């Protein structure tokens, strides 16, 4: 009998806990399921299942064999999918994760265009500021932000930089005149944090070092757009990426503090699991993002 088919039958029966359920799922008869299992047990010289009239469970060796079969079948499926996707046909499913607001504002419109261009490409987009594990969650592509190049054992490519901007409402600026970033520590600040822990704002110095400043904490929020709204409302100063606040600055709702002074650059990177050959679907989406952002 086909050993790979027998493995699939065994794995399906183990996961469903029933020969009848496995037969229904696989479109074969229950006796055929039993025949595949018996063939494996005879070949291996072990008992894979403990079976009674009421229940069925994996033996200790059966559980070990199940784990290895799952790995083998997944490897075969991945290999087949990779060979297919490495053709010029952009198709299949691409799972991608990215920061929530940055993804919705800047990346999602690009990906919507990709979906229109490639009819056989299915996109699964996950907006998450908690940076889910790329390998565990089986993501094909991710966007990560940081102040330096990200190296986590994955392949990565720099996407774009955006300067961090210190800003406040025009009224707040008139009431709290600041000529240097060092004066921020004497004024109310609006902080972003997911844990409640306030982190210093960072500014580059001429010698290449970084100055850290912590304004007086007035509000801590876990949403950067809410911070921008609080700044517009005149509640304090905010340290935010330019892509988020530039429209508000252009509209006169916010003003930059010390615009002549250099600010830190926030880097965004494309990240993907290392592989010798990149699937066509991933290459196509990456190219659209790089050329459009």
The Cα radius of gyration reads 27 Å
Indicate the overall shape. elongated
Number of contiguous helices: 9
Which CATH class of the largest domain applies here? Alpha Beta
Residues in β-strands, percent: 25-35%
- The name of the CATH architecture of the largest domain is 3-Layer(aba) Sandwich
Write down how many β-strands occur, each being a DSSP E stretch of 2 or more residues: 13
Q: List segments where confidence is low: pLDDT < 50 over at least 5 consecutive residues.
A: none
- CATH fold-type name of the largest domain: D-Maltodextrin-Binding Protein, domain 2
Structural class by secondary-structure content: alpha/beta
Mean pLDDT: 88
Helix content: 40-55%
Question: Termini, distance in Å?
Answer: 54 Å
Order of helices and strands: HHHEEHEHEEEHEEEEHEHEEH
Overall number of structural domains: 2
Main sheet characteristics: 9 strands, mixed
